[in-house]
Write a structure and sequence with these properties.
This protein has helices spanning 9-15, 30-39, 45-48, 50-55, 72-75, and strands at residues 19-23, 96-107, 117-130, 136-148, 151-164. The protein has 180 residues and is of the alpha+beta class.
Length: 180
């Protein structure tokens, strides 16, 4: 039996070289920095106390590093079918599940409350591989540059996997193999 392909030439043509740009509607602000820090359990006073941050060489509080990479806060997008309101490439492949394959971050300078952030996403590659179970898997790699004005704040290399689901007749029944 031939395994169906996920990556058609049509899909490759639709995705290759795509770019998406999102600019925040306002500067980041102290409240967003404080909320993110507290919500993620980060009580570092560099994120919460302006006087402490200034005493440590910063003009104001600084954001926890990954806050700048949360594009959903300024993308202004409606939630997708999984409820995620952030950047995706709009890839819809019936019969697959989407899995985050990983992120690699590079931070160039601390982000402060006065930064107006622009995220520029570029789809860098789309390839197809086969899983250990012999199922097709689409591997989508992207790069995002986060800037404030002309200054690079951070970069994110992201991999998202679209893995074909096993055909229903290949999935064991819930009681198969049970010793009870």
């Amino acid at each position: 039996m031939t395994t169906p392909k996920l990556l058609t030439e049509e899909l490759r043509g639709q995705l290759t070289g795509r770019t998406a740009v999102y600019t925040a509607p306002e500067v980041l602000g102290r409240a967003a920095i404080r909320y993110f820090a507290l919500a993620t359990g980060n009580a570092d006073p560099l994120h919460l106390d302006p006087d402490y941050a200034r005493a440590h060489g910063h003009p104001d509080v600084i954001a926890p590093p990954t806050l700048v990479c949360e594009t959903n806060q300024y993308a202004g997008l409606p939630p997708d079918e999984d409820g995620y309101p952030g950047h995706t490439w709009g890839i819809s492949l019936p019969g697959t599940r989407t899995v985050r394959g990983g992120n690699s971050y590079t931070f160039h300078r601390p982000v402060g409350p006065d930064d107006l952030i622009t995220a520029t996403w570029t789809l860098t590659s789309v390839t197809e591989r086969t899983t250990g179970d012999g199922l097709p898997m689409l591997v989508v790699r992207s790069h995002c540059a986060y800037t404030s004005g002309d200054e690079l704040l951070a970069e994110n290399e992201e991999t998202v996997l679209y893995i074909a689901l096993a055909p229903a007749d290949d999935v064991p029944a819930a009681d198969e193999g049970s010793s009870r």
